[in-house]
Amino acid sequence: MPSELTLYNTLTRKKEVFQPLVEGHVGLYVCGPTVYNPVHLGNCRTFVSFDVIYRYLMAKGYKVRYVRNITDVGHLTDDGEDRMSRGARLEQLEPMEVAQKFSNQFHDMMRTFNALPPSIEPRATGHIIEQIEMVREILANGYAYEVNGSVYFDVEAYNNGNDERYGELSGRRIDELMAESRELKAQGEKRNPSDFAIWMNASDDHILRWDSPWGSGFPGWHLECSAMSTKYLGERFDIHGGGNDLKFPHHENEIAQNVGACQHAGARYWLHTNMLLMNGKKMSKSDGNTISPEELFTGDSIHVSEGYDPMVIRFFMLQSHYRSTLDLSDEALQAAKKGYQRLLEAWNSLQEMQASGSAQNGTVGKELTAGLEAAYAEMDDDFNTPKALARVFELVSRINALQGGQLSLDEITARQLTEFRDGLGKLLFDILGLQNRASANGADREALDKVMQIVLDLRQQARADKDWALSDKLRDALQDAGVTVKDGKDGATWSV
RNA sequence: GGUUGGGUGGCCGAGUGGCUAGGCAAAGGUCUGCAAAACCUUGUACGGCGGUUCGAAUCCGCUCCCAACCUCCA
Questions:
Q1: For residue A8, is it within any domain?
Q2: A95-112 and A83-91 helices, crossing angle to 10°
Q3: Do A381 and A363 share a structural domain?
Q4: Complex ipTM, two decimals?
Q5: Which nucleotides of B are covered by protein (CB under 7 A)?
Q6: CB A113 within 8 A of CB A239
Q7: Cβ of residue A395 near strand B, that is under 7 Å?
């Protein structure tokens, strides 16, 4: 593919041409979920966005190592209790049982959304040794200090006179940050409010704990990603991604830790996905403004009028750009559902299409080829899925016109048709990761096909006899059963 | 208060100086036994006020409003 991939780098706040560190290879790290709660829809949007990015990089011919962690330790509640432990206490389970349960659930959900699994999915608890080692290095380099068995990152030492160094990603300056509002007992141990823990001393009742050179404790909240990205992608790697809400402090601290340990930053390109909103506000675990994926699938929620297929939701997400907020509403989902159906129906009729064999100049074929190239070019522009889909829908009209006879199949050569079909299929299913559900049911589908053919033949006979009462009755009854009949030029087609 | 990003036609959502985004909805037409589908046509949309420019949704200034982050969160 001749065109260049550009992407928006949060670090520089502009679009840059993507140049991998090692030609032909991409190291991609994405901050994964915490697993003390069921996954919620906002996470799904982020991971669907990065799924498309991962898929597109592969389609560009890159060999991609995609690392996405599972956070199963280190996040504290307001009263200092580890969230894993809290979940375990509330459900009377082992902490690792909680982690496993929600990891499994998360994986199921990713499959439901047709998101590919990452190449490596490391767990924070599986990398305590690496994290301890990193703390050691940061200490050795003079960017941290130990107090009472805890180790804090020393932001002042890190800045070393350059007060814009810490905060370069998020545009923050430490003297502008709000004062720490939480009353953690550890606050008093810090030299500066903006210092953050990279190793914490465990109190006696803390369940998740490991031995370290500084006593029994657990790793800081942001250290795992620094340690694991370094381990699996190297001290320098290409792309680091995550949700916008992780920009500060999580990613800012990651950069500081990487520099603290390795004397230089890790990722070269930072990509941030924007929030999924509902009612104009962020969907949030904490304030109840949320709808779970399951509720969205079943329709069991005051926010939706019916259940939506996961692919409709995926399509809905792809109709906005990953860096924009997306406002979820029933009306918008209805629009997505209908649009997605129209897209699939056009795809399905394209599969039935035969080149006429008497094609001359292939005018329409050239149009289709150009439109498809335009769609791919949009993906090169910072993974612009909404624009790519806009180009695809222009092609949908062409396909339907060929199907409906408004355009002639004489204007497309067999070769053009084949290449177009392959290229469009690759874009829709391999890159955008959509699924053609209607044709995915195997034997059941085959049986239904045959039954429907019988019914449609009967109806066609009734129509030939001008028995409108019978033909309409068949059509209405099928509609009630959820099958839509469409009369075309060459007989009727149907869809569920 | 600070930081970052927004306010686009009935709804969702692209778009960063001039050329139709796209989807859904709506109106008219073609087709059809009727309908649906499909195709064709139709929208003087860019928060407000100034400014720069031959020309601004797009650049600049002011202003109003919204969201996220600054506390676990994709």
A1: no
A2: 100
A3: yes
A4: 0.94
A5: 1-6, 10-15, 21-25, 31-40, 66-74
A6: no
A7: no
Closest nucleotide (C1' vs CA) to A74 is B72
Residue located via tokens 């990205």:
A229
The more confident residue out of A281 and A436 is A436
Q: Report if residue A424 sits inside a domain.
A: yes
Q: How far is the CA of A178 from the C1' of B1 (A)?
A: 8
Whole-number distance in Å between A305 CA and B42 C1': 31
Do A158 and A83 share a structural domain? yes
**How many other CB atoms are found less than 10 A from the CB of residue A49?**
26
| Residue A393: nearest nucleotide (C-alpha to C1') | B22
> How far is residue A233's CA from residue A29's CA, in Å, rounded to a whole number?
8
Asked if residue A466 and residue A433 are part of one domain, the reply reads no
Domain span holding position A448: 443-495
CB of A284 nearer than 7 A to strand B: yes
Give me the number of domains chain A comprises. 3
The two structure tokens encoding residue A374 = 């335009």
- The answer to whether residue A279 is domain-embedded is no
Q: Is the residue at A288 inside a domain?
A: no
> Is the CB of residue A10 less than 8 Å from the CB of residue A169?
yes
Q: Is the CB of A336 under 7 A from strand B?
A: yes
- A180-226 residue pLDDT tens: 444 444 567 888 888 999 999 988 878 889 999 999 999 998 999 99
Q: How far is the CA of A378 from the C1' of B31 (A)?
A: 35
The verdict on A208 and A251 lying in the same domain is: yes
**Distances A403 to A83, A252, A346, A355, A358 between C-alpha atoms, Å:** 57, 54, 9, 11, 17
**In terms of pLDDT, which residue wins out, A362 or A299?**
A299
Check the annotation: does A262 bind a ligand.
no
CA of A324 to C1' of B52 (A): 29
